[in-house]
Amino acid sequence: MMVLLNAARRLPAVMSLAALFLLGACSGAVPTSGPAASLITQYGAVGDGQTLNTRALQAAIDQLSAAGGGTLRFPKGVFVSGALFLKPRVNIALDQGAVLQGSTAVSDYPRMNTRIEGHMEPWLPALLNADGIDHLRLSGPGTLDGHGAPFWDAFWQRRKENRHCTNLEVPRPRLVFFQNCRDLQISGVEFKDSGFWNLHLYRCQDALLERLNIHAAQGTGKRAPSSDGMDLDSCQRITVRDCTFAVQDDCIALKGTKGPFALADPSSPPVEHIRISGCTYNEGGGGVTCGSEATVVRDVVLEHCTINGSMALVHLKLRPDTPQHYEDFHCRDIVMHNGRIFEVSPWSQFFDLKGQSPPHSTVTNITVSGVTGNAESMGKIQPGKQATISNVVLENVDLKLKSDQFDATGVENLQVRNVAVNGKPWAVK
């Protein structure tokens, strides 16, 4: 207990109680009852890369849950399956060399009412799904493989036919969708080539996501649309640590809902108390991104991370049709080998005011400190007509930049302290 109290004291005061709960919840203090492990092959699953195992795997989940629970273990092999639905007290463990591979047939993911892009609608479930299951554990070192290339190809074909088609016009499954779960741990798993988002958490609390290797289309020459690494949707008290990202959309997206009535949506509570540390970003849309659907996001810390890809460290999308409030974002101890620090600007994808006047948004209390290395530029902060940005601090930065231009128009109380660019003191022009 003393260790937890000392850890809590090192966090901001507003987080001390929540952090203490999170540390306790993620310590594994709540054991799963039942047998230690059950091999899926005991239930008739075949890891030959061809057999469709959906029925066998779902039966294994159902039977293990009914018997009191335990861990369902995948040995080495490629186990193909459609959508699976986890049950209480059942954990999933993927051995080294074990692959749970998603079927490429849309019919293996029966449509259901699901949360997607900030609302509920009939769409495809994920390969792994859970709803209202507390103390759930998903562990590696094995792989979840979305086998996404056919889904990507179908989307780009539709985009050729209609360049204005929406992201949801071509159904594509996610790898993992967990909702309404508390005390959740996902550790040491490889997420590979999801058809859509890789890991989507909705209304989850007190989750630990660690040592995940999330990548899409690497070495294939293909483009993987909507291949977000993590989507933390209406979640609170989430810790992300020691993860690696190489995707072709947002690496970590903090999401809610969108539209002029977003603040009145009870299904989309604020995203709060997010802690990201020790992560490596090799490719993607940003270190931490708000949007494309986000309403209230506050108390976000990103620290001890490395940016290798051409992306923004902080990417805040300001939707002119949504009343957004982004507050208390803190990035510190960052090494950059590429990219830019800020990308804060209007985002009008699939814009719809629904006949209402444009709402007002605010961004406040953003600090970036302790940044070293090489980058493209400082980036840009452009609030647009319907947003106010205030209290932005850039301090203790030492970077070699290709361009020292910084477009920071309309920022109230922008502070620059101890910043050097290309070996010389730097100030906003």
Question: What's the CATH architecture name?
Answer: 3 Solenoid
Runs in which pLDDT lies below 50 for 5 or more consecutive residues are 1-35
CATH class: Mainly Beta
Distance between termini? Answer: 51 Å
Task: Describe the overall structure.
By secondary structure, this protein is mainly beta. The chain has 4 helices and 35 strands. The protein has a single domain, classed as Pectate Lyase C-like. It has helices spanning 2-9, 16-25, 54-66, 149-161, and strands spanning 38-39, 48-52, 70-74, 77-81, 84-85, 90-94, 98-102, 112-116, 119-123, 128-131, 137-139, 143-145, 176-179, 182-187, 190-192, 199-202, 205-210, 213-215, 230-233, 236-241, 244-246, 252-255, 271-277, 280-283, 286-290, 296-307, 312-318, 325-336, 340-346, 361-375, 377-381, 387-401, 406-408, 411-421, 424-425. A hairpin with a 2-residue loop joins strand 8 (112-116) and strand 9. The chain is globular. Residues 1-35 have low confidence and may be disordered.
